[in-house]
Amino acid sequence: MKTSWNETEQIELHLSASADTGSALLFEAKLLLDPILHDKVLWQQKTYVAINNYGRRQLKKEIEAVHQQLFSAPQHNSFRQKIKRLFTNL
Amino acid sequence: MAATNNTDNLPASREAFFIRLYKKAFPLVAKYISNRGGTFDEAKDVFQDALLIYYEKTIAGNLAINSNEVAYLSGIAKHLWIKRYRENSLNIPLDGIDINLEDDGANPSGHRLMYFLETAGKKCMELLKSFYYDQLPLSDIAEQFGFSGTRSATVQKYKCLEKVRETIKQKALAYEDFME
């Protein structure tokens, strides 16, 4: 299987439109001739979306952990009381 | 304070960053929402999403250096709350914060895929997240993940990208509902 990280890098440069003009033209020509490469570009695009979603999920978990810490650790008692007073249902 | 100085986007300093913002801004947001008949869970929900939006904006360098972080963060949270829970009331447009936080079913964000990436593909995903989502400099990534230098971190990043790309493709083709 002819895959290499250089090709993955080239796909990235193509998708982010940051290749220089010569390389960009060459890549576009390759893309027209090579359906496998075309396929890789499409899946790589989906991969960036997946990485972003993964990043957000992990960040949400970190934020929730901070929330749990603030609403349970003894050293944050006064903060917790301040919030509790605002909501009678707590 | 912007998080572009490579400190707030490292895991340990991120925790301190969120604790500080929670303590400074959450009481204001909670008071605002409570005064308007909202609940604690609503306040928590919008505040956490506001923190995420604020974090993404700081790493992207989209904030003015001297912008008041508490005012800005509270503004995002209030705006989200009005949009979500008081849609029929006054809708104050606030440019640039309408980020869609929901996973889109058409995108590779399905629960099965995410579960798979969080377990089997975790090592690569953590590396890719540090680079593309947290936008850490390669030198920090090399240090954090134990690579000999930025060159080696770059090669590993592309190898991981390729591996995850092939995994997503294979799984998506094997299970029709993988991406849903």
What topology emerges from the helices and strands here?
The complex is a heterodimer of chains A (90) and B (180).
Chain A: H1 5-15, H2 21-33, H3 35-70, H4 77-84
Chain B: H1 11-35, H2 40-59, H3 69-85, H4 111-119, H5 122-133, H6 138-145, H7 150-174
Helix pairs in contact in B: 1-2, 1-3, 2-3, 5-7, 6-7
Overview in brief:
The complex is a heterodimer of chains A (90) and B (180). Chain A is an all-alpha fold. Chain A is 76% helix and 0% strand.
Description:
The complex is a heterodimer of chains A (90) and B (180). Chain A is 76% helix and 0% strand. With 90 residues, chain A is an all-alpha fold. In chain A, α1 (5-15) packs across α3. The mean pLDDT of chain A is 91. Chain B is an all-alpha fold and 180 residues long. Chain B has helices spanning 11-35, 40-59, 69-85, 111-119, 122-133, 138-145, 150-174. In chain B, α1 (11-35) packs across α3. The two termini of chain B are 38 Å apart. The model of chain B is unreliable at 1-6 (pLDDT under 50). Chain A binds chain B through residues 3, 5-6, 8-9, 12, 39-40, 43-44, 46-60, 62-67, 69-70, 76, 79, 82-83, 86-87, 89-90, and chain B through 11, 14-15, 18-19, 22-23, 26-27, 30-31, 34, 39-40, 43-44, 48, 51-52, 55, 101, 103, 107-109, 113-114, 117-118, 125, 128-129, 132-134, 155, 158-159, 161-162, 164-166, 168-169, 172.
